[in-house]
């Protein structure tokens, strides 16, 4: 169950296509399903699995020709131990134009059907042109390491960031943890006994590359220290 409540000024968010590209870029595993097999592909090592597939637009009249279906499933899991750790699911649907093999040196040609993003807000459908035009978030490959480092080694700074949350957290909040990090800011999950809400603390400006992250994160900490609000809620 989610609680109502959001910052007075909503933070900028990635597009659905950008979110999908970011999830694919950071993925370490996927489920691959064809007419003949279901395979759990692990150890992607942060390489975009779309590099294994050469996506083609659907051909006119192609429905008259049998082509095996292919389905790629990805689960975006929060790297920190929050409630409801699944942040999103991505499904890429298509039809095989060439046989798929895990050992193949060349990429597999796929007639692209659609990409589906499933989040708490519902389903979003993304076409090939939009997907190819989108860029992954520059922090996507590093997000997990950065968030776990913040939580494990700088636990006090999470509590500090609560000073920036609007509306102000109440005594009903029993725990606050970082749940997401992207070019737009840091998202905290405020957990109560019966539910939670996510609040994004925006950076002064969106990041263009990971090298800018240190400066922007420190700017948030500095703003929190200047805040007159004092918060003793657990993080």
How many strands? Answer: 10
Q: Which bin fits the share of residues in helices?
A: 10-25%
Rg (C-alpha, Å) = 20 Å
Mean pLDDT rating: 87
The geometry reads as: elongated
Distinct helical segment count: 5
How far is the N terminus from the C terminus?
A: 20 Å
CATH class of the largest domain: Mainly Beta
CATH architecture of the largest domain: Roll
Q: What string gives the helices and strands in order?
A: HEEEEEEEHHHEEEH
- Per CATH, what is the topology of the largest domain? Pnp Oxidase, Chain A
Tally the structural domains. 2
Unreliable spans are 1-8
Largest sheet: 7 strands, mixed
Structural class: alpha+beta
How large is the share of residues in beta strands?
25-35%
Task: Describe this structure as you would to a colleague.
This protein has 235 residues and is of the alpha+beta class. The strands form two sheets. Strands 1, 2, 3, 4, 5, 6 and 7 form a seven-stranded mixed beta sheet that branches. Strand 6 and strand 7 form a beta hairpin. The longest helix is centred in the C-terminal third of the chain and has 14 residues.
